[in-house]
Amino acid sequence: MVYFIDRGPIPRKLDWENSESVYDVSKDFFKSNHIKYLADSTDGTTYVNRIGDLGDTDGNRGWVYTVDGQQPLQSADETPANDKSVIQWVYTDYSQDSQNK
């Protein structure tokens, strides 16, 4: 299941193989629901810069993802998605995070 913050759960009718990555599953979800996204690949890893109208702004804001409530340390294209995984993309403000520490 794929969720977006501020939109609540988005119903999905996706079936994926256990060999697919979080990025592969997310890409399929975005395309099948006509959600625009932008991702860049650098040094062999993929970073999702924009989903819908929200994007990375000068390194202060951006998208992070969780799988089953945990935030993996590797990029979404390196994280496997199991058939029962709950994937959530969260738009966050990093400048607020650093001010709260």
Automatic annotation (TrEMBL):
Domain (Transcobalamin-like C-terminal): residue spans on this chain: 20-92
Pfam entry (one): DUF4430
InterPro entries hit by this protein: Transcobalamin-like_C
Protein name: DUF4430 domain-containing protein
Source organism: Levilactobacillus namurensis
Source organism phylogeny: Bacteria, Bacillati, Bacillota, Bacilli, Lactobacillales
